[in-house]
Amino acid sequence: MEVTAPGGTRWSVRVVWEPRWRVLARRFGGWRAQRRKDVGPGDVLGGGAEASSEIGGHRLGSSISDELVIIGIVLFALVLAAVLFWWVLLPLLLIIVDALIVLILLAVSLTARVLFRRPWIVRAAATTGETTEVEVVGWRAALRRRDAIADSLRHGLSPAPEVIGR
Predict the structure, then answer these.
(1) What's the gap between Cα 112 and its chain centre?
(2) Which segments cross the bilayer (predicted)?
(3) Are the beta carbons of 63 and 69 closer than 8 angstroms?
(4) Residue 11's CB: how many other CB atoms inside 10 A?
(5) Confidence (pTM)
(6) Cα distances (Å, whole numbers) of residue 115 to 28, 104, 109, 118
(7) How far apart, in Å, are the Cα atoms of 88 and each of 39, 77, 91?
(8) How far apart are CA 83 and CA 76, in angstroms?
(9) I need a labelling partner for 161 at 20 to 30 A (CA). Which of 50, 56, 61, 111 fits?
(10) pLDDT per residue over 26-60, tens digit each?
């Protein structure tokens, strides 16, 4: 909720829900690819083994046999299927799994917050950097406290730090 005080200062008053342990909310670095410097092109290709000029018992000559065309089509279809899976199906599957995990965690955490009566934080922050926080037990009480702080700021009063709803 945005409020403008009579002096022209803009305040943002909201109910905030932050984890108790800030360590849990931090991100622990990104996934970094570890590069190996001792890998050469011969290691990737299997030690530089020489390719045979015979495929399927037929000596390669000037004409391409039907077997090579079929093998090429099958390889192309496998590569296309792998690309489709990697770039389309796997990301969609991961998005669905992530959404389900977030919804389950949200339901469990909201239930735990209600059952263990953890306080909600009502924070009023001004554009000048001034911040006031009040802990209030109960969601409806926190919303009433948020509205009371917004009304007091609208009328030129400073937000009172006392806790209401405990």
Answers:
(1) 22
(2) 68-89, 95-116
(3) no
(4) 22
(5) 0.49
(6) 30, 16, 10, 8
(7) 31, 16, 6
(8) 10
(9) 111
(10) 544 444 444 445 545 554 444 444 444 455 555 55
Which of 76 and 155 is assigned the larger pLDDT?
A: 76
Provide the terminal-to-terminal Cα distance of the chain, rounded to the nearest Å: 23
Within 10 Å of residue 17's Cβ, how many Cβ atoms? 13
Please, are residues 10 and 2 in contact by the beta-carbon 8 Å criterion? Answer: yes
pLDDT at 89 over 90: yes
Q: What is the pLDDT of residue 113?
A: 80
Which pLDDT score, from 0 to 100, does residue 129 have?
86
Q: Which residue has the higher pLDDT, 26 or 146?
A: 146
Cα–Cα distance, 95 to 7 (Å, whole number):
47
Q: What are phi and psi of 137, to 5 degrees?
A: -85, 130
